[in-house]
Amino acid sequence: MVPGAGIPVTRLLLRSLRTVDASLPALADPARLGASFPQALALLAGLRPAAVFTTGGYVALPVAMAAALLRVPLLLWEGNVIPGRSVRAISRLVDVLAVSFPQTCRRLPGRCYVTGTPIRDLAGVDRLAARRHFEIPADARAVLVFGGSQAVQRFDRAVEEALPELAERAIVLHVTGESAYGAALARRDALPEPARERYRPYPFLREEMTDALAAADLVVGRAGASTIGEVTAMGTPLVLVPYPHAAAHQAANARSVADAGAAVVIADEAFDGAALLDAVGILADPRRHLELSSASRSLARPGAADAVAALVLALAERRPLPTPGEVQALSRGAAA
After folding, report:
1. How far is CA 294 from the centre of its chain?
2. Which of 46, 163, 211, 280 could bridge to 130 as Cys pair (CB 3.0-4.6 Å)?
């Protein structure tokens, strides 16, 4: 995707670090890491960047080490409440940390700013126009269900079990992923009218995702930083089903949002049709829905990209860094 967009890419030899088995790739990883450091060093020496920005990950280790050796200013952005091992290692080499959650600053050393998660531009988003685009009547409630960029069987089964009652309660925008789209179409065709017209499966929503987020009265999804950042920028209540793996990072993200009063959290193993229907009951309780919406909006940082950019530019231009208050003002921006 990146080369196709006309952006030059240089790949390091290091791909990831595996620690769960004794396979040949796992044995080769230390060698790849060692070889990637001089590769990154040569790359930065040739490019002579004014600053380096990274979101962590093991592939960032040799780049961060090279930047530190060459005294290139380095900013690390971390989107999870609990940083992973690579982020904790890299954090000791960086000049500035930018994070999505305030709790993260207490887990990492160094100068730390709460910027929120950079998200797509929401300027000019019109909720009424978005609902017209998806043909959602003014008096109808809409639920957006998506589990990420790939098909998620847990979500797919929960929606299947909840139909047709789910479609009777709300218009359902269901992002299935390509592999599950055919089965979702078959489910829709088997529904009686008018439920059939109220269940709308999509393989993907790319440019239309902004409108889907704006049109929804409730969003059901995973607890990744981008999902939380985009939905709270809309001031929409969340039902979060944290991804159960990856060191349970998403569970901590979800707890943070729930503690703020903006989300209902359902464990992955407990998420089924009954749990989904119970969660959608939020829409039948106007007072609770309003409370969740207000809490969601209070977390919004639609200007997170501007805040991160201000920090990167200050490093690159060797200027004094913005104050925490200035960064917060930039990150709060103007919620949609």
Report:
1. 20
2. 211
Q: What average pLDDT score do residues 70-87 get? A: 95
Mean pLDDT of 153-159: 94
* Tokens coding 313: 């530019």
Query: Minimal CA–CA distance to 58: which of 86, 38, 32?
Result: 86
Residue 324: alpha-carbon gap to chain centroid:
23
Handedness of CA 248, 249, 254, 259 (dihedral sign): positive
Q: What is the pTM of this model?
A: 0.90
Question: What class, spelled out in words, does domain 127-298 have in CATH?
Answer: alpha beta
Q: What is the CATH number of domain 11-117+302-332?
A: 3.40.50.2000
The CA angle 80-86-75, to the nearest 5 degrees, is 70
Specify the domain boundaries for CATH 3.40.50.2000 within the chain.
11-117+302-332, 127-298
Contact 113, 311 (CB under 8 A): yes
Amino acid at 94: V
pLDDT tens readout for residues 6-42: 999 998 988 766 555 555 666 777 788 889 999 999 9
Q: Would you say 47 and 63 are in contact if contact means Cβ atoms under 8 Å apart?
A: no
